[in-house]
Amino acid sequence: MDIGLILANFGFDWRMALANLVNFLVIVWILKKFALKPIEKKIKEREEKIKKGVEDAQKASTELQMAEQNSQETLLKARNEANKIVAQAQKESEKIISDAKIFQEEQAKQILVKTEKIISQEKDKMMQDVKKQVVEIVFDISKKFIKTGANKENQEDLIKKIIKENEL
Q1: What are the phi and psi torsion angles at 11 (to 5°)?
Q2: Calpha distance 137→163 (Å, rounded)
Q3: Sign of the C-alpha dihedral, residues 104, 110, 114, 117?
Q4: What Cα–Cα distance (Å) separates residue 154 from each residue in 125, 151, 161?
Q5: pLDDT (tens digit, 9 = 90+) per residue, 108-149?
Q6: CB 146 within 8 A of CB 140
Q7: What's the predicted TM-score (pTM) here?
Q8: What is the number of domains present in the chain?
Q9: Are 125 and 143 in contact (CB under 8 A)?
């Protein structure tokens, strides 16, 4: 039996298979040309960045070790110098501390005077505000008494109502 007939019985068409193969090869060529090359280029760029990063890290590590050695030497020198300075500073600090205490006491007195002045000013301002509010309330009460012709029975209710309206 002929293989072509057997394959045809199974629904295989060699022309369709050939067209599919050609289509597949065209798609592979297009992907290789337009997709794989840019991807390869990006991968190479990233590899170069990684290599450069590794080299930079190695350089930084070497520089860090050298800096640590330098800092230890500098630290020893600084400690010796610091010991000398500390001895001298202790003498001067006692004088500075006594001067600072005197200065702080003077500052505290000045702050206390300023604070008392501010409190007094705030108190005066609050009193003025209270007086102003009382005048406004009295004015409102008087105005409503005159408008409503209030008598002794409803005066208390009217006063309470006006006070509630003027509360903050």
Answers
A1: 90, 20
A2: 7
A3: positive
A4: 34, 6, 11
A5: 999 999 999 999 999 999 999 988 988 887 787 777 777 766
A6: no
A7: 0.33
A8: 1
A9: no
